[in-house]
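Researcher: We're teaching a course module on how sequence relates to structure. For the next exercise, students receive a sequence and then see the predicted structure as tokens, so they can try to spot secondary structure elements on their own. Here is the exercise chain.
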Amino acid sequence: MTYSGNLKPIVLLVLITVALCLRANTSHAGTSTLTVAGGCFWCVEADFEKVGGVSGAVSGYIGGQTINPTYKQVTRGGTGHFEAVQITFDPDIVSREKLLQLFFRSVDPTDAGGQFCDRGDSYRTAVFVSDKQERNLAETVKAQAQNQLGQPIVTPILPYGTFYPAEKYHQDYYKGKKLVVTRFGPIRQSKAYKRYRKACERDIRVKQLWGDDAPFAGG
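Model: And here is the predicted structure for the students to work with:
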């Protein structure tokens, strides 16, 4: 008991040190989101769910005026929405910067009229940002990609708005087991997706643009 007076400052110091360590270890805990439009949202979702540190990707619509838009409304035009994907990731494993680098090299950012075989405003590329810091980062990564490509990149950096998840049947379409009717007859969603992606020549065009830096070509 005679040492209790001397121990109190030491115990306090230890507690403060432990608290600071815990704070440092949890400062980046949790998840963040990045929302991008890259043409067909099935393809973007399939690509980014392969990335380490990404816990999920949701297909949806963003950037327009219509509340709770449907797929038919968006693809028909007039709603102002993009087909987009909201990517949830752990910033301790993969950074926002890295995901943006992958995004620009997984699309044709020189095309202002859509992507690959999908034409129209809803299939344009875009990056959506929530604040100045995110905007500055996106603009920096875009400039780096443009410098590497040697061509003007038309992908806009737009303010984040309301994101509406797409209909249930669009989610994880690329690995779905449900049968869908195609001109080849009834086949599984996963097979229909692969045929669509190949026919649309997405990977061929991305490979032409980015060469070995195309991260998902062949996906």
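Model: If you want an answer key for the exercise: Confidence is low (pLDDT under 50) at residues 11-28. The longest strand covers residues 54-62.
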